[in-house]
Write a sequence for this structure.
């Protein structure tokens, strides 16, 4: 048996929630809209990946804080960021089903889509995919010995950094730069290993902060360094073997890989979405080649990831297309036959 919906939004992150809020604000009927979220809470990426003492900045990764739609943010703490999204869900009474991971989306011959989750099979006329790029962190191409799993991480939330810990951060993007700064604040002894000779992928403020810490001797910055393997010591610490012989297989307490995330390419391709190289083909309203199937948020930002306000703006742009092309409020007709007020939607 399948449930039928007008609009299914996959993912309750900033992009998915913003699209739901835009639609509900615009009069889309609540009982025809459903958000499916794989975790047991909204905004999994923010809850799980942002370090506790991180400031959420409105300007991020070079995306200006230039809001085009209903929503915007200003700089705020992680707790304030979570409260912001909790309030949004509350204010618009956004209908969300939790613990439902979408496995596949398939275009139906008669129009619309079949959405298969861990629990249900749905049909929807319109689908917006807002699953972000963080669900699948990039992994190194050498194996991680099983005994080291508790000491090897892909973010800062699965362990508690403590003063004096020797920590290796691997990567050259903003996440790596931010992890370094938080770990130093936590009193860890931090080494940053990056395979390139120069830091080129970080925001200017992060690059400057990392280089200042290195110049002050507060971190070790190993540019042009390439890890070839990890070996466990008898007491279970990771020994890191580098291709560069002068980096003499140092020992660490923990390793944090910040290698970015990948677009869930196979997932999108299996929904029939066309790609040009590694990038999904989208029009100016982030509609894919499949009519009524949209991408929202980080998925729209090619491979480099977006920002919260960028996600809000993509949601607004998608909503504009839905409103103009796929749905318009149908005026309710009063008993005297006159149009009364905006009521349930329908195809224009
Ligand atoms: C460490 C770090 C720091 C950052 N700092 C900032 C900052 O200061 N300011 C800023 O503007 N941006 C920042 N960002 C970026 C910002 O968090 C993202 O751009 C934003 O979260 C993207 O929103 P999204 O909705 O596209 O995706 P996400 O936030 O990734 O949300 C996707 C949601 O979809 C769910 N999901 C995934 N797969 C499925 C599935 N198959 N079925 C159902 N649900 C699914 C996930 O659980 C998640 O809740 C930071 C990112 C990181 C990693």
């Amino acid at each position: 048996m399948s449930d039928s919906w007008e609009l299914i939004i996959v993912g309750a992150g900033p992009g998915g929630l913003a699209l739901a809020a835009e639609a509900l604000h615009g009069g889309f009927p609540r009982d025809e809209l459903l958000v499916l979220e794989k975790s047991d809470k909204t905004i999994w990426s923010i809850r799980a990946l942002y370090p506790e003492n991180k400031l959420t900045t409105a300007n991020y990764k070079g995306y200006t804080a230039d809001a085009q739609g209903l929503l915007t943010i200003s700089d705020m703490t992680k707790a304030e960021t979570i409260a912001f999204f909790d309030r949004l869900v509350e204010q618009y009474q956004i209908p969300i089903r939790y613990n439902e991971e979408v496995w596949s989306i398939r275009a139906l011959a008669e129009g619309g889509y079949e959405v298969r989750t861990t629990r249900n099979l749905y049909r929807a006329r319109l689908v917006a995919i807002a699953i972000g790029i963080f669900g699948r962190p990039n992994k190194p191409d050498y194996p991680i010995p099983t005994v080291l799993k508790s000491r090897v991480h892909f973010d800062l939330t699965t362990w508690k950094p403590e003063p004096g810990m020797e920590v290796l951060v691997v990567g050259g993007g903003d996440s790596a730069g931010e992890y370094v700064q938080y770990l130093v604040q936590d009193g860890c002894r931090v080494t940053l290993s990056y395979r390139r000779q120069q830091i080129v992928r970080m925001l200017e403020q992060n690059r400057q902060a990392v280089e200042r810490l290195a110049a002050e001797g507060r971190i070790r910055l190993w540019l042009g360094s390439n890890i070839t393997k990890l070996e466990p010591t008898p007491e279970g610490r990771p020994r890191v073997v580098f291709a560069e012989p002068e980096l003499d297989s140092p020992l660490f307490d923990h390793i944090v890989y910040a290698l970015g995330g990948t677009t869930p390419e196979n997932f999108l391709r299996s929904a029939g979405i066309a790609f040009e190289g590694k990038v999904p083909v989208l029009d100016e309203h982030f509609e894919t080649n499949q009519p009524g199937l949209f991408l929202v948020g980080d998925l729209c930002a090619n491979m480099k990831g977006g920002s919260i306000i960028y996600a809000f703006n993509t949601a607004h742009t998608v909503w504009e297309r839905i409103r103009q092309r796929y749905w318009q409020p149908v005026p309710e007709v009063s008993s005297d036959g006159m149009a009364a007020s905006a009521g349930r939607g329908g195809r224009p």
